[in-house]
Amino acid sequence: MPKRVDHDERRREITEALFRIAATQGLQAVTLRAVAAEAGISMFQVQYYFPTKEQMLRYAWQRIAELSAERSGRDIAEAMRTGDERAVIRACLFAVLPTDERSRMLCAVQIAYFAVDVTRGGQAPDQQAMLPHLVRLLTDQLDQGRQRGRVPAHLDAGLEADALATMTAGLLSAILVDAYDMKQATRIIDYRLGHLFPGS
């Protein structure tokens, strides 16, 4: 009896091969042939699941979003249960950063998509929503902190949220090029949160 193929698993395996190429060489190096070689399968098998490069890239972006949500969701949900706005914001910011080799690869792939969109656009049409979503979450937490007297009343929650999000995006890039490490990034984030939550 022939072995039953798990098509979802095969798509994920192909996507992992794409990730490895994109993380080290950029999206310009991603082709159906290159991904087939990296995955150790035939070109025909790749084309069975992804007839075009564009379809493969779009699926890979969706997979990145799923993996990022899985990774961040647990830590943020745990912080939410504490009712501590500072802990929630900290979890949100750390969810953006590469904390191990796996997340470093995924972050590098995200940057590869961003780089393509800056020059050509169209590879990850929903990625523009990611930063505003983070900013809204941070703003809500800062507003709650203000209402509870934990965040200084004079601060603009929206502007502070923008500053935190853009600071963390900068740290992400710096970590990927080894200008900073996670220890330094942690100190910077905790220093900034110390100013926003002076009594914590």
Tags for this model:
200 residues, mainly alpha, 74% helix
How does the SSE layout of this entry go?
Layout: H1 7-25, H2 32-39, H3 43-49, H4 53-82, H5 85-96, H6 101-119, H7 130-147, H8 157-176, H9 182-196
SS-derived structural category: mainly alpha
Number of E-type strands: 0
Average residue pLDDT? 89
Give the radius of gyration. 20 Å
Helix content: over 70%
The helix/strand series, from N terminus to C terminus, equals HHHHHHHHH
Number of contiguous helices: 9
Overall 3D shape: elongated
Provide the low-confidence segments as ranges: none
The main sheet comes to: none
Distance between the termini: 63 Å
- β-strand amount: under 5%
Description:
Helix 5 runs antiparallel to helix 7 (130-147) and helix 5 runs antiparallel to helix 9 (182-196). This protein has nine helices and no strands. The model has no long low-confidence stretch (mean pLDDT 89). The protein is elongated. By secondary structure, it is mainly α.
What's a quick, concise take on this entry?
The chain is an all-alpha fold. Helix content is 74%, strand content 0%.
